[in-house]
Amino acid sequence: MPRLTVESLGKSYGRISALENATLQVEDGEYVVILGPSGCGKSTLLKCIAGITKSDTGSIWMGDRRIDGLPPEERGVGYVFQNVALFPHMSVWDNVVYSPRVRAVPAHVYRPIVFEMLDVVRLSVGLEQYPSSLSGGAAQKVSLTRCLVSGVELLLLDEPLSALDTRVRVQLRYELRRIVKEAKLTALHVTHDQEEAMAIADRIIVMNNARIVETGTPEELYLKPKELFTAQFLGEANLLKAKVVGLSPEGSILEIGGNVLRGPKLPEVRDAYCTVIVRPEFVNLNPSEGEIEGRVGKKSFAGSYFKLEVEVGNICLESKVSRKSVAASLKEGNKVRVRIMPENMIVFWP
Amino acid sequence: MPKVELKGVSKRFGDVLALDSLSFSVDEGEYFCLLGPTGAGKTTTLKVISGLVKPDSGKVFIDGEDVTDSPPEERGASYMSQAFDLFPHLDVLSNVAYGPAIRGLNERKAEEVAVQFLRLVKLDERAESMPGELSGGMQQRLALARALCSGASLFLFDEPLASLDAKLRMELRAELKRMAKAQGATVIHVTHDQEEALMLADRLAVIRNGRLVQTGTPSDVYSNPKNIFVANFIGECNFLEVRVVKVKGERCMISTPDDTILEGVCNGLLEEGRRAVLAIRSEDIELSGGRNDIPNALQGTITDVRFLGYYDRVTLDLGFSKFVHKILRSEKLPLWLKIGERVKVFLPPESCIVYPYPEGGLLKELEVI
User: Which is it for strands B251-255 and B237-248: parallel, antiparallel or unpaired?
Assistant: First the structure.
């Protein structure tokens, strides 16, 4: 049985619909990330599960226990906010043991759990320190620890890394996944950061305009998205209009921006138009090999890779090229051969 | 003549020395990024240039003229702060049209210009909203539109894209640079996002504790980081404590904790027998499944392979340290690349930069906040 089941959940604020017919499941021990642009309803969904916001329709189940009528503290969920909410007048230790203390759990019962969790979190600050002396990353780890020791069944994380410095955020995302896995917890994490979602999640739920768009592993959603929105939101993409000009048992022939290219296998739809998505790293550039000829336009340095614009026919493709590859030495104005493997074309029909 | 020049600028706030004898110059028409961790003094630097903060010592020049004591309005700079400073009582359109209007355009003309800039930041549909009704990301775009159509020749942007999601950030990033270049404007753009700085800047400066650490083109700074702090702050680097065995010219031999001898490139004064730090970019490592006879390699075990879209992130356990390896996705991964496999970790000598061991210890240098 799934740890969490959400069925047909809906929520409106006046005439604005914040959440429509949201249905999802989270398995025991799974780390699920809800990803979407700002205002898509992802935080509303999380707040409904936590009980901070009351849903209008639908139901929420924790195992076989229906929880959407219960107050937040009886739902068995822990909630971590974007802006760390620690008690400023309490030490790190007092913050961490706050929950067991108010529930009058005896110290000899909670202390071993607290120490175990502190061990898992690898907190590098003194327990006697006060929140004001902590860095953003350390403070977020303290609030996570506080959540973990309260013995929750499900951890809800609302943009937990968004307020942190980029470097700290990147470090902490891997930490977060490790902690949840080591503590054998189940987590539902909301973010607008695509790379963060892929780095952390077992499974991603993509949301847009108050609805769930699709669900899958990072790999499925990035390489084989079913919806155009996902293809464009998760990672960079060349969006190309294509005309099917030929079909063969091996694949298809596509006309894209005045170029004729080999395409993937398609159903019998001659002379039809479709949209083809190609990730920039799959636009292979080579001085000599490749199906079509192009000309290098703007080139920009991005650290581990270069981003090159390539004009082919009457369109412009974006290509990501590893710093060490032969293509990295290409310069603006150079002629290149361009190749896109048919299996790296994602086709959408109108 | 540089557009902006800072000469030995210092500023103290109480006990904190926010700027410590900071000097740099920015050329006319240049897109210049100021990069550093939280608290490095980036915002204070912008405020000193805009005239909102007066330095304790040092001089600020704009167009060759000493403006250290000039008020903000005489400096011809447009400053976009992190607080946005929108006019709460004016709607979106009027916020943006304000600049063109005080420059003397009639109301209709000013609004036309404003709409054009609102379209650019994709806010034209919200022209009649009040700032308070917008989300954080929208307010940021509004502030950006307002700054851009002020007609200034110098733009000072403080984290102008920080509140946006990656897709929008990427689009506006390209727009921002295109616009600045089209207007022939000079831009000083503060960010803590190293990728943003690398992709936008003609030249960038890394600052730390109010001091300048390194300036250069993005590829200069990325390829030849001056010290461990820069190597760690820009790009993803692996670090290893080593001992110097032999120095010969620009190259050196070092020994790792498991007594493997490796060759690397010296950066700074290295002494034989002393501790040092080896740095290698995560994308510069090469892995090999079978062969055992590669020089300049260590033995490692793959502990994690994460799919991250355009690249895969492989974590390696070397026994005495953990390394991260980034593989750009253009070809299929080899079959042996999976968790638990023992692999050879090849460190190309030209990609191994060896730094003297930092005085305060390696961990202190790697602290980013």
Answer: antiparallel
